[in-house]
Write a structure and sequence with these properties.
Among the domains are: about 150 residues, no CATH class; about 35 residues, no CATH class. It is about 5% helix and about 50% strand. It is built from 1 helix and 12 strands, in the order αββββββββββββ. Strands 1-12-11 form a 3-stranded antiparallel sheet, with no helix packed on it. The longest helix is centred in the N-terminal third of the chain and has 14 residues.
């Protein structure tokens, strides 16, 4: 094979050719086309289950109740508002704890409120123009209430235990008041022996069912502005007083061992004479 002399210009031209052949970088974002088909076909599958009976650990309903919580709060907006357009509310429960042997339920949480309100950009005697802004606030609540277990009484907690024990020991004793045959008969004080037992009880817990809020909101200190033109009936405000009555329905549950009896498997028909 003949020797080819190294030519730097040839290497440079190859690099320029590779650079020209590289695909251009797209600046547009990814695009997806397509959609959902009109019909989907399904085939029923036989349901298999344990029919011989079993012992299962499942949540058991101890009580179901509806709480009434009365909340009164004042919300200060970050700027003057002229009208409330919408308030969206969601109930969040952060603590639902029952103290056993007292039947007292402690509940704590907050109402997340997203408030849409209008602001002023320009105005005259005929109208006001501006933007719609929003403010999200958390209104806290907490209360305690006694619980009547209309389902089943929870299991009483099993306390932990600790027991000490010792071994018998015989020792020789010496002294002017003891004979050679005297022995010290007692427990062994040179060691410490103990049996400790702890039980991990199932703590009752809550399951939310529904939440209903009846609300009354009122603007505080609505003021007609001075120095600018607005329609005569328009007022601005910066604070809202909220009165809410919250009806919270929940279940109090506890994980328990439940014996499930065996289930008879046979044909299912409406007329027993035909089976």
């Amino acid at each position: 094979m003949p020797w080819i002399r190294y030519d730097p210009s040839m290497y440079k031209s190859n690099q320029q050719m590779q650079k020209r052949q590289d695909p251009p970088i797209k600046t547009a974002c990814v695009r997806t086309t397509g959609g959902t088909a009109s019909d989907c076909i399904n085939t029923p599958v036989e349901i298999t289950a344990l029919t011989t009976g079993a012992v299962a650990k499942i949540p058991v309903v101890l009580a179901e109740l509806t709480l009434q919580l009365n909340v009164n709060a004042i919300v200060d907006l970050p700027e003057p508002a002229w009208e409330i357009k919408r308030i969206k509310k969601n109930v969040k429960v952060t603590q639902c704890l029952i103290i056993q042997d007292t039947h007292m339920l402690f509940i704590k949480g907050y109402v997340r409120k997203n408030i849409d309100y209008t602001t002023r950009y320009c105005s005259n005697s005929q109208g006001i123009c501006g933007d719609i802004k929003h403010c999200t606030v958390d209104v806290p609540f907490s209360c305690t209430t006694p619980v009547f277990f209309n389902g089943i009484v929870p299991l009483p907690p099993v306390p932990s235990s600790s027991t000490e024990f010792e071994y018998f020991r015989q020792q020789d004793i010496y002294g002017p008041r003891f004979a050679d045959k005297d022995k010290l008969l007692s427990g062994d004080l040179s060691e410490f022996n103990q049996i400790s037992t702890e039980f991990f009880n199932e703590l009752p817990f809550c399951d939310l069912v529904s939440a209903r809020i009846v609300e009354f909101d009122e603007y505080l200190n609505p003021t007609h502005p001075s120095g600018i033109k607005v329609p005569f009936a328009e007022r601005y405000f910066e604070s809202i007083e909220e009165k809410m009555v919250i009806y919270l329905t929940l279940k109090i549950m506890q994980n328990r061992q439940v014996a499930i009896p065996p289930v008879a498997i046979g044909p299912i028909c409406s007329d027993c004479d035909e089976c």
